[in-house]
Amino acid sequence: HNAEAPNLEQAFHRMAQTEPNLDHDISWFLLPSYWAKMVVALISFLCFANSYDGDFVFDDSEAIINNKDLRAETPLGDLWHHDFWGSKLSSNTSHKSYRPLTVLTFRINYLFAGGFYPIGFHVINIILHCTISVLMVDVFSILLGGLQFSNKGRRLNLAPKTSLLAALLFAVHPVHTECVAGIVGRADLLCALFFLLSFLGYCKAFRESKEGHHFSIFWVLVSVILGAIAMLCKEQGITILGLNAVFDALVINKLNVLELIQKLLHKDKSLENAGLLRKGLLFRITLLMSGGASILYIRWRIMGTGPPAFTEVDNPASFADSLFVRAINYNYYYSLNAWLLLCPWWLCFDWSMGCIPLIKSVSDWRIIALAALWFCLIGLICQALCSEDSHKRRILTLGLGFLIIPFLPASNLFFRVGFVIAERVIYLPSIGYCILFTYGFSLLSKQAKKKKILAVAVLGILLINVMRCALRSSQWRSEEQLFRSALSVCPLNAKVHYNVGKNLADKGNQSAAIKYYREAVRLNPKYVHAMNNLGNILKERNELQEAEELLSLAVQIQPDFAAAWMNLGIVQNSLRRFEEAEQSYWTAIKHRRKYPDCYYNLGRLYADLNRHIDALNAWRNATVLKPEHSLAWNNMIILLDNTGNLAQAEAVGREALELIPNDHSLMFSLANVLGKSQKYKESEALFLKAIKANPNAASYHGNLAVLYHRWGNLDLAKKHYEVSLKLDPMAPGTKENYNLLRRKLEQLQKKGG
């Protein structure tokens, strides 16, 4: 499996002799490799340790709690046909994010924890980031110091100081908080882990042996496989194959890119002297590119249909009619990503929905950011290509490569992405930033007379970043803190106001929720989800007119919005416009065939209209689609009971309790039916079981008292009437029944006297 390349051996020894050492000029800590890795692991742990007991927040709900692929009853094979959120990849509504290995780790977390307990999920994320940060010591030692092996084949760290500094910069970068503290960030962490392992595996292909320097086809293939695994964790992983090719050309073959371009332009026949045709390079690049193409082809076949369909609010620039506007705004987004790497102070869980208004004219002052970005990039590229210092060329090119290439899938250049800015996608590009920062620090140290002051300044930056990580991690511990932290960063983001409102509504603070929902709709007048939620709250507060207006507008903007159609039907039902309500319910079902809640509400409408058969059919559909739909079962039992179909009501009640054995409301409904059927003993047992599960329900005690009253057990009847009246003095019928019982007891006492 080994292909000889003797001409590379001299190149390696020459590099060791002639290349300058970055460590020579900087004033920094020199630690043995083991201790350096321990320090990096400890500091990266301290940055994010306070997120270990956080809740499931933001996207965690969809990717974990509502994802059926995590549950044991879902066949393991389904993971390979579903997207990250548990939807079928072939579905038109799928986001096409194919990350089966990440979902598999969530499933293992869920099974080991025995349920949705976030601590285990968070701990794994923290461990993954610590592991990646430790691997970074080795990766940066190669990228900054070069690839060297001892006579025994052990890789040498020629830049222990700078590799430690770069690894620390990576470990404590605040922009990584979303990946570590947000459980969904597991995809980026796993992708980064196998990304780095692929790179280190590729480096192993060039280990020296007694026979001379050679490369191992085995390790090149291992690198390709690890790259494929990285992509099965997140799509960015595939970019490592391109970076391995760049590393091979620059470090292993010492290719001078500018010289190569010049020779190609002049059609120079001595291209082999430029290193392009040096033995083995083309073969290895062919292996990498073939592997990458095969992986992408398989990925495209699995995806089934075309690319995902995103909306304008997800990525407004990509929907701009003008190519100029699109290009300007894409470049502005790149500059903001660069700024987040340089100054990660303003961090937000979501940057869409008006957070960053479009640049529509060259007179917009934000054009300055684009100019600054390209001024810096062009300067770095010129230095990377034209510098006479080969060491400088190599480090700058690798830094730019690791900064730009992993970012390409998120750049909108090849396909539209579903976000404006996403901090999680900067996890891998931050490797390039750390290389460039560390190299810049070494150059400054070389020029500076007081190197220790410079070192203290860098230590200060690291300390500030550690504190920022700890603060940001604490904000990711709960949705309330996370959403509120975004208000000051993105006050124009409608989704931020929507999420704050939703969080308040979930906690029962409807008045405050209305305020934030209204602001979300003001900021984005087409925000149908905010309209739907606001309409729901107004419906519950009996402000039906405004609720109907909002929900009607929502379905007008998005005609296939099934939830809004259902809620509109509920409002129309409350306004006693039954025909319109029925039509709205059926429209909702048309757009979402498996919609048990809509069938339940449709059943209620039919019950109000005394269309009992239709009501029972609608509720039966609800229970078929969702067997644990307690309200639908209950309504069937009650309707059959009220219409005198006691035998059928009993059968439905028993069927429901088999499916939901611990539902006290079903026990109560069936107990009522059994009592009317004079099955007193069984009825009593169910009433007592229901009361044990919910002891403060006045109706449970009241109806059990009625059962005892009928049964002739008057003392127990009196006891439960009194408990019921104590819990709810205004309980309908209970006071009258209790007075009847008291008169009966008084009459019995008189007779006994």
TrEMBL record:
GO cellular component, one term: membrane
Keywords: Endoplasmic reticulum, Membrane, Repeat, TPR repeat, Transferase, Transmembrane, Transmembrane helix
DUF1736 domain segment(s): 306-378
Source taxon at top rank: Eukaryota
TPR repeats (start-end): 494-527, 528-561, 596-629, 698-731
GO BP of this protein: endoplasmic reticulum unfolded protein response
Protein's pathway: Protein modification; protein glycosylation
Membrane topology: Multi-pass membrane protein
SUPFAM superfamilies found in the cross-reference section: TPR-like (SSF48452)
A Pfam family annotated for this UniProt entry: TPR_19
Location in or out of the cell: Endoplasmic reticulum; Membrane
TM region(s), chain numbering: 34-52, 101-120, 183-203, 215-232, 281-300, 367-386, 398-419, 425-444, 453-471
EC number from the UniProt entry: 2.4.1.109
GO terms, molecular function: dolichyl-phosphate-mannose-protein mannosyltransferase activity
Entry similarity comment: Belongs to the TMTC family.
Protein name, UniProt field: dolichyl-phosphate-mannose--protein mannosyltransferase
